[in-house]
Write the structure tokens for this entry.
Amino acid sequence: MTEPRTILITGCSSGIGLHAAHALKQRGWRVLASARAADDVARLEAAGFEALVLDVADSASIDAAVDWLAERTGGRLDALFNNAGFGVPGAVEDLTRQAMRHQFETNVFGAMELTNRVLPWMHAQRHGRLLFNSSVLGFAAMPARGAYNASKFALEGFCDTLRLELAGSGIHVVLIEPGPIESRFRLNAAREFEQWVAPHQTGRHAMLYERMHARLAKAGPSSRFTLGPEATSAAVIAALSSTRPAARYRVTTPTRVFWYLKRLLPTRWLDALLRMAGA
């Protein structure tokens, strides 16, 4: 009997990660689902998952998770979905070095470190899939999202480089680029703003923050283009199923539209559109 393919997914407490875990489990994958909080891990276990505590912003937590994986899988992992992430909203001039470091520890450094820890396993088995949850903001910046924009731009550069370096190895690197997806992202962003940016406001962006607060507090979809997490899961499934996966899977209409506009429009015109979209 053929053993099921094994995938580790980070950030499975809700939203994209949780839905992808369920979708892949239904398709016969052995899903190793991780979350930062023990309560979330307990809920994942109650739902039938092999679950573990993993905070990718903490190297010691990554060490413990890799040890757990080695014991459970014998050092075999078919795929990794680096999904864990969040956004620190705020104007660039109100972002401290500490806020930027906090943003990058999870969105960039954690994904890089975890990837590098499991890559030797994939090299040994001569195959693997490395999926990274990026964003439309990984290539099209919008105002009041400087920390998140920068983290996703950095993640995309890391992945593009890794894809070149792994050519011919049997290991594929894939970027998933969602636009607006139903999740706890806005709720979490509001909390991050209050902790990291609100105490350092210059006052120049009061009107911008007033609009931002209203948007973050709004219940329901953030726009008429918002899709459920099943849209992202479909891209994940496609990336894992294809014999030759694409380098990028663009999810939602805004992502696809801005991908082409960035290549067609002069920078001034694109800036004007991005300012309106970001507002």
